[in-house]
Amino acid sequence: MKYIGVYKMFLFVFLVYVLYVCKHHLHPPSTDLRRLLHRLTIASSLSIICFSLVYLLTGGCESELAENPEIKPSARDFLARASGWRQEGNGTDALGSGHAAPETNSSGKEWTAARRLPQALIIGVKKGGTRALLEFLRLHPDIRALGSEPHFFDRHYSRGLDWYRSMMPKALDGQIVMEKTPRYFVTVDTPARVHAMSQDVKLIVVVRDPVTRAISDYTQIISKTPDIPSFESLAFKNRTTGQIDSLWSPLWIGLYAQHMERWLAWFPRNQIHLVSGERLISDPAGELGKVQDFLGLQRIVTDKHFYFNKTKGFPCLKKPEGSSKPHCLGKTKGRTHVSIDPEVIRKLRDFYKPHNQRFYQLAGQNFGWH
């Protein structure tokens, strides 16, 4: 319509011009008049052709887009795709920044994948079931968890938070980033360091009968260093008097009340969730449900995801996403424990009894360790 209007205006101007010429050349010889009209015709034709070309090259495309809005979305989509985030093999965006990078879906909504500091930490305890808990939680679509143990707050704190952030997996808005390092629970400086990073971080501790945990810990140690002394000789300062060496690492870790008090000095009790290592084996779905509630997530990981492996004595995942086979934890999990003198076990239970009672008070629940 705009194109026709321009032609009408040009025709009006041309007619005015012809009338003007005729008025001033009304009585010239007929031959001169014919020449004049011939020149006007050629000039007007050339003008119309030139004007049309200029119009098409400048205003035509713009007016078409303006008058046909359905063309615009596809153009915007093309630009979005051309400038959108491209995932590289190393997990960083195309610019290599490792920070937020937009990804646009067909509806035009932007999602943001970024490396963020964790909002939740599995801080302990060693040989309590932390690896099983992490693997089970990774089934949840709203959890992004680091597979390895970064040991930032106990070993690599001097590297700074930027280094720590770079270790985290990319996560979308709304997903929870988490990692596990069981040593955090027993390291003296860790609670203050975690608090300096975030006062709102959610903390998860998997606890287990401290005597059973100590034997499991020792079983792992001798698998790597088989020439060390026996459990019985290391557990006592003096076997004759029955004085227990509470500073020996496998026993010291089991002093849960001592470690818990250090964390409660920095974080409120409702920010620390305790998982029963025993129930994580006997009722994994039940324990996972409580953890999902604690993290504010929908209960997506349920009993349909597990089956009990009688050979290993542990629950396994039926069919993890992207796999057609069931998945159990590695060979290092579920080892057969070394045989310990029953009298030594009895003495250890007597030793831990007051510490366990104190821990039950701090935790607000009885774990039933006898």
TrEMBL record:
Keywords: Disulfide bond, Glycoprotein, Golgi apparatus, Membrane, Signal-anchor, Transferase, Transmembrane, Transmembrane helix
Transmembrane feature ranges: 6-24, 36-57
Protein's cellular compartments: Endomembrane system; Golgi apparatus membrane
Entry's EC annotation: 2.8.2.-
Enzyme class name: transferase
Pfam families assigned to the protein according to its UniProt record, in alphabetical order: Sulfotransfer_1 (PF00685)
InterPro entries according to UniProt: NST/OST, P-loop_NTPase, Sulfotransferase_dom
Membrane topology: Single-pass type II membrane protein
Residue positions binding 3'-phosphoadenylyl sulfate: 127-131, 208, 216, 333-337
GO molecular function list: [heparan sulfate]-glucosamine 3-sulfotransferase activity
Residues of the Sulfotransferase domain: 118-355
Signal peptide feature range: none
Region (Disordered): 91-111
GO cellular component: Golgi membrane
Catalytic site: 127 (for sulfotransferase activity)
Disulfide bonds: 316-328
Predominant place of localization: membrane
Protein family (similarity comment): Belongs to the sulfotransferase 1 family.
Name of the featured protein: Sulfotransferase
